[in-house]
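cron nightly-structures :: item 1 of 1
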Amino acid sequence: MTRYARDEFDRVPQNSSRQGVHRAPTDTPRRSLVPILATGIVALAVGLVCFLVLPKLGFTPVGSGTSVSTQSAQKQEGGEAPAATTSATPTPSQQSATTDPTASPSATPTPTPSSAVDKTAVVSVYNGTTTGGLAAKVATQVQGGGWPLGIVGNWGGAPQTASVIFYRGTAQKANAEALSKLLGIATLVDSTDFQQPLVVLVGPGYR
């Protein structure tokens, strides 16, 4: 036992929850965790249902429709034309040009055939034989066929072995063919050696 006299701090009740003057009570009530855990389990179950079950039933999230319409609007604004509007509509003038069966074709001038006989071309006749007066005889036939005469005389060039009709360029080919039928001369030569458009050279054996 102590040698000190007992005081008020030595009288502690046996059923008191206090263990000292400077200590806090040790029997503080504790909060139960059961409601918190129950709330968390319910929230988790609701989230799983919304994420897994609702999409299978046909329910879509709230913002999905808005995003789809926004994407389609962005495509149209970016220059993509809808498939239904890609075909060009013909103008009234185009429709009349393509669908009017009674439209008359535009009149085009008929070109003059290059093979037409032009009897305004001058014909010269040369005698390449030793038979006198043969050039004048052929010239009479040419003039009687409707062609104007040019030079009529004797041939001064190289000796010829047959009768020839010379014509200057393709424009005179039809005239040369007509003279060939008229005079019975089959040989036709395109030549630029003469100034005249048509030259008949009467050679040996011509009758």
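cron nightly-structures :: done
Confidence is low (pLDDT under 50) at residues 65-70, 81-87, 95-99, 108-114.
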